[in-house]
Amino acid sequence: MKLSIIIPVFNEEVSIVDVIKNVQDIEIPKVTKEIIVVDDGSTDATASVISKFRSQNSNLKIITHKKNQGKGAAVITGIKHATGEYIIIQDADLEYNPQFIIKLVEPILSKESQVVYGTRLNRLPDFSKDERKPLFLFHYLGNRFLSLVTSLLYRQWITDMETCYKIFPKSAVDTMQLTARGFEFEPEITAKLLKKGFKITEIPISTKPRGYNEGKKLNALQEGPKALWILVKYRFH
Questions:
Q1: Of 204, 215, 208, whose CA–CA distance to 94 is shortest?
Q2: Average pLDDT, the chain
Q3: For residues 54 and 168, is the Cβ–Cβ distance under 8 A?
Q4: Which residues on adjacent β-strands are paired with residue 31?
Q5: 191-220 per-position pLDDT tens digit
Q6: Which domains does the chain have, with CATH numbers?
Q7: Among 82, 89, 134, 171, which residue carries the largest CB count within 10 Å?
Q8: Which of 146, 171, 168 minimizes the C-alpha distance to 159?
């Protein structure tokens, strides 16, 4: 099986090389990796850092947006250039450990599922770790609420609709009209996969979430209502 790993990146000069290296280092039996980095109009040194790294790693696919268009737009660009049978998205920060990709691919290889999500939230709030901070507790509650709405609207239980780690067949999205430009990509692709009849298998993962002072870009107050609208819109569209 060939797996296309899409890495959308915007202003991640500090972490992008480590992320690419970590993705390169994972070894998945019976799987060939294709790594596609989409620079979404970075204004820091991300472009030069990627270019320098690529000079020693010619097997990377590098695509550049002249202007910043948003995460969704970058992922859609990556999908258009992907040649693998399956696709997964890898964020360009260090929150998600690529080692979990090995575990997420297992249900695909065993033909138990065609769509696999890595869930961070199939648990109660952990007030000794992540959720001890109000920001992360707010994100936890918001994500669980949106996932509950997803479950009710589309009649399939899901605990982490907003997860970055989503594996899905390229054939499933080739015929989709994906329009999301920003973080609303997550509810859009989830809604459209569920409407196509795909069953989502969730595999527990852990992450190391970062705060806004560390470069986090998702604004939950702005993106939450957008996600809710997208879920309702595509349920009845």
A1: 208
A2: 93
A3: no
A4: none
A5: 999 999 999 999 999 998 865 555 555 666
A6: 2-235 (3.90.550.10)
A7: 89
A8: 146
